[in-house]
Amino acid sequence: MSEKEKLEKAIERAGLQDGLIGRSHGLILEVLEKGNFCKSEIFDQVKGRNYLTAPQQVIRATDQLVEIRAAKSVGTRKTAYAEIAEEEEVYQITDRGKLLLNQLHAQFKTFDR
Amino acid sequence: MTEKYYIEIDYIDCCGCKLCEQVCAVTRGGGVVSPGTARIRVEVRPTLGVDIPLVCQHCEDPPCYVCPHGAMFIDNKGVVIIDAEKCIGCKQCVDMCPFGAIQIHPVTRKAIKCDLCGGKPKCVEVCRKAHPPGVLRYVKVSNAGKYSRDRWADRLEKQIVAAMNSPEAARLEKHAKAADDLKMAAEKGDVA
Amino acid sequence: MTDNGWYGWAGTILRVDLTKGTVEKQPLTKEMAYDYIGGRGFNSKILYDEVKPGTNPLGPDNLLIFGTGPVTGTCIPNNGRFTVSTLSLVTGGLGDGNSGGHFGPQMKYAGYDTIVVKGISPKPVYLYINDDTAELRDASHLWGKDVWETTDILMHDHDNKSMSVSAIGPAGENVVAASSIMNEYARAAAKAGVGAIMGSKKLKAISVYGEKGIRVYDPEDVYDSTIEYIDLIARTDKWWFETFSKYGTPMFVDQYNHLGALPTRNWKEGTFEDADKLGITPLYEKYVKKKRGCGGCIYHCSPWFRIDEGPFKGWVGEGVEYEAMTGFGSKLGCSNLEVCLVAGSLCDMYGLDYISASEAMGWAWECYNEGILTKEDTDGLDLSWGNDSIIHEVLRKLAYKEGNLGKLLALGSRKAAKKIGGKAEYYSMTIKGQQMGSMDPRVVTAWGFGYGVSTRGGDHLRTHLVCEYMFTPEEMEKYIGDARASDRFNLSEAKADLVRWTENVRFLNDSLETCKYINRGSPRSYVEFPYRWLTAVTGKKFTYEGLQDVADRVLTVERSFNVRQGMDRKDDYLAERWYKEAMPVGSGKGSKVDKEMYDKLLDRYYEVRGWDQNGLPKRSHLEKLGLKYIADELQKMKLLGKEA
Hints:
Chain A is α+β, with helices and mostly antiparallel strands.
């Protein structure tokens, strides 16, 4: 199976087809391209774009990326957000994530709205 | 006889949701969903914050095994089984169980007890899913005690670590620092 | 026996007449079951049909209805809920409160879907239910006792520690507007002054125990769908599933503070400088000993606490909910967590709603700090912001209607503010007279709109719009049709559609009777499971679209009830402060609710609901929902909505 097919299959298995992977995920992957970050750090970098105005949106979108293996957890770090956890997981983009990001760039002129 | 199992319970962490009781009644209640048709029941004590699951302990020497009518037998897994056809509802087994784990079904009027769902107890599954890792465990009798030891060790571990960071330790640390300060002052000639 | 042909539903409505002293059993009809589902669905329909305009809420003709749903008592996730409905003395319209614990399942196991109480008892009584036995018994030995004492005595007298007891405390007996009906010591049906109605009827408690049971149609799918659902939430709402199980509602103190939505000093601000003293870190460090859950719960969110040292040593309770920490904490400028914990337990014993009680207090605090209330009004108490030493005393005064302050607060903040007059009314943060809890609407705009149009008055649970800040914009686009609904700061037209969608799916929680925490950020949890559960439990085939029709029907019945009571568009607005004052601090600094846009949203919302521009239901819509008789009645009263 090609990498493209594996990505498609993963999205389908997770029930995230039909446009459920979109601009929000592109914005998150763009952040992870620059480095490894926790969810709260990712939120700080993308907030205000594509209607992303609450950390929980980014938390769930990041979990979706992890589910389809476009991102993975590479450790933990202490953060200031008590209800997320004293220690948050740190995420890294995977090769599949880079492929997905390319696809999203091709699909959307811009991730902003 | 093959390896014997039982349902091991963490009494401290049970939250009293009764999902185990409800799931048992739904799947094994003979068509009637009620605490009276469940083979595991939870007693809740909100003022103490205590919730207690009560179920057949699958005793090694079962006091319930007294049926005068031949309705009980022990299967090849060591589980006491009640044959509903032969049961006359005399309640001798009900009276003998110290855990109250045998009930009379409100509709069939026969004695009912846990039979471990033939090897995949549903109460254990729902508790594990809803409240991971679950307070009910399907455990080999040969491992009885292991999980209690693990749990208590985990709890004590936390307390011991907290004690290591206690005011007592801080006091000792302060003493050590005071001793250093005194030493420095003495070297400077500041001691009375 | 349970063999009356019903699956899911028990098949019986209990009719209690306190004036006559009678208890009768009425069979449930198929029309009621299939067209209204249960819980709030049944309750609101019965209220509309039987409580006529002009009824005195504290008189014998008002009804107090306890309603469970068809899945209550099965193993469907979080099925342990029931709704209490009445004509509210707080709003003058439809009022209800929803509670957890085990009372709901016990009602079903004993054989009853709904209990309808009317009349006024000449002497205090309690309703004793044990399977087929349902009778009124003398409660003179219980009258005057608090909720915890009452529960203990009933369990002891009936030698049954497994029974469930719903009771009022001194607040309900004194017909205080903020009073609640408690069960299992710490679970509450709290809003709309339902406790006051129960007190006015001289009904002290309902005790219930049942083993008769109910039936389910497809036990295999009931079980399979339960396991699949838990797996779905664990996977598609992972953060929520893990974090909420661990921390419970106190996590909202931290979370809302970050969102800039934590009500602070009577809603002046949305961030509290001492929120970290009231949040999960200090709470779990010292006080929480155990987590507990309601019937069928998949989270065990309820933190059981004990204070081990200090001035409140020995206090225990489960009153450790967000509304206690914000209500007696940030709303009053108080940063003492122990004061909040004990205040919660006091409310549970007195039978007071945390929200309504703390809101009345927040109003009084602000009026005092602004010089509108004097020390004479407050019986000499100093209600300065942050003075936590008098909070418990004020709560006691409220429960017992003691002194000038107690009598004033007992009216509820809207009536109390009217009594004082002037700027006091501006500080009463009520909607249709009902006090508010939850999040500041200036930074979660769809929530605000939801508060305004809620059929039971100011309320976050008709919508409980966590989807606004938890759905990804992609999910919002797929399920609601417009990603703009994801922007919590901007009140766009998309919010009206979002509120309508959410009210409809939330009605399913209130009618199946499941806890609203089972559906949060996962869209599939709202859409795919309720109809599957209903079908598996009852044997009648339900669909998502069909349930949307039922939701539309009940929302319109509730609206019609309020319209008959004299409400219309003018009552669907928020308290002035949220339009006028920009949020001064926090992540939502500068935001306020755009009134012009709010009006546009009302227009759109009424349109999708089938009501006219004044919020009155139209005949075309009523008839489509099978409610011609309501159209005829409203027409006679000249309250029918104008067709376009």
